[in-house]
Amino acid sequence: MSPVLQRLQTALSQAEAFAARYPRALTGAVVTALSGFAVTAFGIAPLAPDASSLPKQQIVEQLPSLDVEDQLNELAAHDLALTRAEATRSSDTPDSLLRRAGAFDPDAAAFLRKDPLARRILQGRAGKMVHLTADASGRVDRLVARFPAERSEQLGTHFTRLTVERVGNSFRSSLTTAPLQAQVRFGSGSIRTSLFAATDDANIPDAIASQMADMFSGDIDFHRELRKGDRFSVVFESMTADGEPITWNTTDGGPSSSGAGRLIAGEFVNNGRTYSAVWFRDAVTGKGSFYSLDGTSKRRAFLASPMEFSRITSGFAMRMHPILNSWRQHNGVDYGAPSGTAVRTVGDGVVEQAGWNAGFGNVVQIRHAGGRSTVYAHLSKIDVKKGQRVEQGQLIGKVGMTGWATGPHLHFEFRVNGRHMDPRAIAKASEAVVLPAHAKGTFLSTVASVKTQLSVAESMDGVSSAE
Fold it and tell me: Strand 181-190 to strand 362-368: parallel, antiparallel, or no bridges (unpaired)?
């Protein structure tokens, strides 16, 4: 056997011996790295076209061989630490959580069982992201769990951090609240079956898909006009806690599991026609809205739908009445959705009725400017009162099946001077909100930045990525 091969074999044997003295979870990367030190290749490229004509001189220098055993002993002298991230499960015990994170520490498990803070936050609660740091023997040094802020006014803007750390031979726990940080992300995709299937494939959160449907609701009827092969690109905010993406479960409340924030900009190619828009907030009024890149507001006086995204089960047309079993004109639009789905007002106005109304069940009626009014029926819950002033997009109730209803859905009507009209046609024909003159300079600067971001997003080809 050649001397080079003998040295390689000796180095690998020493590395294996080192691995045997430490947990595999800690040493796999170390052994791989040390094994890669054995052979290194070098290349020299000509510095100029006539480099071959330059005089050559060969220099031979004996380099000392690397003593792998000395390197391993040096590594052994350091305190190696293992850091793992795990999401809690509803079936977790302190022992199972620590075991899944690669730590074996009875003292830490006992503290998590007894400490009031740790018990309240970790035991039986799914979806909390836990980062655990342990030494080479599996002894826990620190555990940090992040979850939605516990105060309702901080939901969506802050997170709470539970910290459990070793102090000598014992542990201590503490609870702090900190603001979420926004990170810009890009994504793109194409329609095969549905909008949400396409955004799922592109790792784009459902909340962003819903905002995109809102952004282009005046241009595209996502219930009827979506085509296979349609393409979209988005720029959006992802909320992070201590630099980590939010991945907690929505059953615990707070922000969505994706940690999605605001949709910043989007582009949608529908049936060969391209639509682009950007979110812009007026610094003077503090109000924000979606605008096309030429400054035309995407927001109209009325939204196209009283829900972020849903399935139309019955349109504005003649139909067989499901209860009366006779052909009748359906004077509204029915949206199929699970009970409890949020219902919003499609425009600014004043609540004229909020209560029970025979076949409509729980119903809200809102009076808008210009002799217009809207009706929201079969609600399971009403969140507004008669006489209350409401703004476009405000939550007014939740989907149900009260009154004459065969299943959970929202019956929505639009009336102009008492006459029933097709809500979708009214939304498309309603007047647009105008960009204030004082904001045009800032808006143009925003658009210039957004165009570059949308180009990056378009190149993502079905994946989302941090900026």
Answer: unpaired
User: Whole-angstrom Cα distance, residue 401 to residue 386?
Assistant: 21
pLDDT category at 10 given cuts 50, 70, 90 is low
In CATH, what number is assigned to the domain containing residue 102?
A: 3.10.450.350
What single string gives the DSSP state of each residue in 227-253? -TT-EEEEEEEEEEETTEEP---GGG-
Confidence class for position 443, pLDDT limits 50, 70, 90: very high
Greatest alpha-carbon span in the chain? 102
Residue 176 CA to residue 239 CA, distance in Å, equals 18
Own/partner contacts of 148-154, CB < 8 Å, gap of 24 or more, are 148/248, 148/252, 148/253, 148/254, 148/255, 149/177, 149/254, 150/177, 151/177
- Say which CATH number the domain at 359 has: 2.70.70.10
How many structural domains are present in the chain? 3
- 329 and 416 fall within a common domain: yes
Query: Alpha carbon of 307 to those of 56, 184, 317, 379, 429: distances in Å?
Result: 78, 26, 20, 13, 19
pLDDT in tens, 342-387: 999 988 999 999 999 988 999 999 999 989 999 999 999 999 999 9
Q: Count the Cβ atoms, other than its own, within 10 Å of residue 177.
A: 12
In 229-317, beta strands by DSSP E: 231-241, 244-245, 260-270, 273-281, 288-291, 311-314
Cβ atoms of residues 410 and 337 within 8 Å: yes
Residue pLDDT, tens place only, 215-248: 887 788 787 788 999 999 999 988 888 877 665 4
Residue position matching structure tokens 């299937």 = 197
Secondary structure element (H or E) that encloses residue 372, with its range: strand 372-382
Residues 232 and 174 in one domain: no
Give dist(CA 342, CA 410) in Å, integer: 10
Q: Which residues contact 375 (CB under 8 A, 6 or more apart)?
A: 332, 360, 363, 364, 365, 411, 412, 413, 414, 415
Query: 167 and 213: one domain?
Result: no
DSSP 78-106: S--EEEEEEE--TT--HHHHHHHTT---H
Are residues 371 and 416 in contact, defined by beta-carbon separation less than 8 angstroms?
Answer: yes
Q: From CA 34, how far away is CA 194, in angstroms rounded?
A: 49
431 secondary structure, DSSP code:
P
Q: Are residues 457 and 365 in the same domain?
A: no
